[in-house]
Amino acid sequence: MSHDPFADEVLSGVPPGGGRFPFVYYDADGDCVEFIATNESFYAERIDSLVTVFYGRESGEIVGSLIKGVRRTIREICERAPGFRIEIQDGRIRLSHLFLARLWTSPGDGSQVVVYQKLRQVASHADATVTIDQLALS
Questions:
Q1: Cα atoms found within 13 Å of the Cα of residue 113, Cβ hemisphere only
Q2: Comparing C-alpha atoms, which of 6, 123, 129 is closest to residue 63?
Q3: Confidence check: pLDDT of 124 > 70
Q4: What is the pTM of this model?
């Protein structure tokens, strides 16, 4: 693989994670987390400056997301809600907790709140986690 393992996987034609779902990938260079819960083909829709939601083409349901600026977002959440650090266990954080914290710390219109709640449910059901050590947080 080259310097970008995710790009190599995408270009190989093999589904992310070797076809295993859910799939969670942290891209350190882009400081983003891509989460895909199912193998359904999807389209993307950006809901705010941080999150792009993936919707299944057939089901219309949320099947994943792309979270940008993850390190900065976690730092900001920890500053606004210091208790959030409790949710970081064994060097891992559940994506559902990130979505919940985002709900707590950012104003959003009603439609954004609903989408974040659904993202939280999908991530929770998939038990999607990312390793904090990869995020280089102190």
A1: 7
A2: 123
A3: yes
A4: 0.78
